[in-house]
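Comment thread on ticket #2218

A.B. wrote:
> Attaching the input chain for the structure job we discussed in standup.
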Amino acid sequence: MYENFLKPLQFQFLNVFSQFNWVNALEILLIISVVWVFYRKYIRHTQSEKLVRGLMILFIGWIFSEILTILNLTILGMFLKSMVALISLSLIVIFQPELRRFLSYLGQPGFLSKTFFGVSAHNTQAEDDKIDVIKELIESVKYLTKTKTGALIVLQNELSPSVYSEVGIKLNADVSAELILTIFHPNTPLHDGAMVIKDNKILSAGVLLPLTENPKLSWKYGTRHRAAIGLTEISDSACLVVSEETGDVSICMDGILKKYDDLVTLKEDLEKILNISDETVEKKNGFFAFNSFLKK
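C.D. wrote:
> Ran it. Output below, let me know if you need it in another format.
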């Protein structure tokens, strides 16, 4: 089965390199450029980066198996080739959610322009809305940390699945500090769950997130922190956490928590998470006045 699966690839591989010319070299450069663009925009510094490294190791293993076969080390070559094929087929099942998420992203409007030219429809308005979201988040965090009110806010990106936002109480409301503080008030029914923000909207609240199963995690982390770590371990979302015990504020990405001692650094990292350009921030600051806002 595995031999039949790899035989066409082997034939094409040998056929291309037996007739290699300068046109093939240009094609390889084009492929490398496209792969590099995808890597920088959607893979680097994300949880998917480990998966890509694993795929590269499998590809190198397949090339090495071909070299072994050419050197008449047939048994070693076939063994390595069979292992590569078995693992490759298993990845389709193991990483089915990631593949489905990637394919759904390919069908989004403006995919090519956003990927290769960095532009999208209504880009300026979208970034202005993101700055407003950060303003409301910072304002609510100031009060939450001061009163030691626990909060868990999921910042869901475009590639993240919406399955967790669909299990809570659907809101689809504009982001505002007043609404955030109301939801996480200790006497409200939704304060124990997570709030999900996507596309500059509060999609839902009272969402239950999967807890991390990491046995090495310190005992000092409560349920909110464990839920934030658990979600970011299996998705590319970011989680903003405010501790109920200490009032400390943290952001969790890729299963790693980062604690913040000042709102300025928090604001800068939120801008990176939401992909806001410095030029848009400067234009918005004309009436936003973020620096003076932080000093209040």
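A.B. wrote:
> Thanks. Noting for the ticket: Strands lie at 151-155, 169-174, 194-198, 201-207, 238-242, 249-253, 256-260.
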